[in-house]
Structure formats: structure tokens, C-alpha cells
Amino acid sequence: MEEDKSITAYYGQRAHEYERIYFREIPDRRRQIDEEADRVRELTKDKTILELACGTGYWTQIASENAKSILTSDISAEMIAEARKKEYHCPVEFVLADLYRLPFPKHSFDLILLGFWFSHEPKSGYDRLFNTLSSLVRIGGQIWMIDNNPPAEGANVDSVGTDEGGNNLKKRQLSNGKEFVIIKNYFSPELLRSILSDAFTIERLNFGSYYWSVVLTPKTAKTQ
């Protein structure tokens, strides 16, 4: 079996099967996703939204129910192709872009959505990520993130150690048998607060058995 350490290649090749993660038949897992969807509907009401790492558009579609408009981006053309297949309830514009090379004016969005990316961000990149998010959201605006805890991945996803930066490495296998090794870090509520509290005010932290989510306000944006 071939292994690949490129997370971009991994998500590009997984795009057509990725959304299965939302529909595994585990009632409590499904309940936690549905509860978060309700929170997103409320959070996005009448807002101008930037979504980063949009993937297949699962959260884009939910946000579109109440949002004013959404500008959504991903580095994977395959993921965006999947997202374009959905129907949306507000204007949605898709942009193929690297999260760190975004062609958007500073402080242009009421709300930033970032789903299931933070666990892939190398620990050494946290400051860069936080600065990017803070520079794009309007003063007084918010950032929403969601990610998963180990039980959400099931029993057959193996850890393969850590890299030189202390990041947890996981083995992932596609339905065609191809294997990838990617960064996949996990967090406790205490660790999340420790990592996020210098850069952000944590407006809300929900931590379930399968998923966690946060709503953040940048501290730097408040003083600019």
C-alpha cells in the first residue's frame, strides 16, 4: 500500500467519500453534529461569512440557511467541486486558495468558519493561523471552529507516533486502499483554553465526547 504525507493530496483524493463522516449510524455522534448545526444556524444569521477549508460544503450549506452571503475557500479543487454540487440558500462564492495566501481585504467579514482543520495545523503554526484569522474578521466579529475527538474516528484509525514538532501522526486509508500519514492532534478543554486564550476571548466552548467547537473573538482586533 502506498503512503503519502501530503494532507492536500489526501483531501483531494478523499473528496468524493469525505462526507460519509457525517452520516455514520452512531446516535450520540449524530446528535452532537445536529446540535452544532443548530448553533451554526443561529451564529450565522444575517452575517457576511468567510469560510476557510470548506471541504465538501457541509457547513457551508447549513450556514447558508441564515447567512447574508458566504465567501468560501479551500486549497483542494476536488473538495470545491464536491461543494459546488449542493444547493445554497444565500449567495455563495467559491475560491480556490491556500489558507495562508488569501486574496481578501483585512477585516472584511462578520464571521469566519473553520471546520475540522485545527487538528491538522502543526503546533508550530498556531500563531500564524491565529494572526490570519484575526486579520480577516471585522473588529467585534467572531470565529467558529469545530473539530473531532478520537471516538469520532472509530477504532480502525492508527496513530503512528509523533513528528519532530510533537504533532500526533495518524494513518488514514481511502476506500481504494491508498494510505496517508497526516498530522492529527487532539485536545482537552483545558488544552484548548491554554492554546487559544492568549489570542482570543473564548465566547463559547462546547466539548462533547465526539466533537468540540469554539466561538472566539480576537483580542488583537478589539484594540486595532
Work out the helicity level.
25-40%
State the shape: globular
The CATH architecture designation is 3-Layer(aba) Sandwich
**Estimated structural class:** alpha/beta
The CATH superfamily label reads Vaccinia Virus protein VP39
Q: What proportion strand? A: 25-35%
- Poorly predicted tracts of residues: 1-5
What is the element string, with H for helices and E for strands?
EHHEHEHEEHEEEEHEEH
Q: Give the distance, in angstroms, between the N- and C-terminal Cα atoms.
A: 51 Å
Indicate the mean pLDDT. Answer: 88
Assembly state: single chain
Number of helices: 7
* CATH topology heading: Rossmann fold
* Count of discrete domains: 1
Tell me how many strands there are.
11
Radius of gyration: 17 Å
At the first level of CATH, what is the class? Alpha Beta
Lateral strand order in the biggest sheet: 4-3-2-5-6-11-10
Main β-sheet description? 7 strands, mixed
Summarize the structure in words.
With 224 residues, the chain is an alpha/beta fold. The protein has a single domain (3-223), classed as 3-Layer(aba) Sandwich (Rossmann fold). 29% of the residues lie in helices and 30% in strands. It is built from seven helices and eleven strands. It has a seven-stranded mixed β-sheet with strand order 4-3-2-5-6-11-10, with helices on both faces. A four-stranded mixed β-sheet has the order 1-9-8-7. α1 (7-18) packs parallel to α4. The protein is globular and about 40 Å long. The chain starts with a strand and ends with a helix. The model is unreliable at 1-5 (pLDDT under 50).
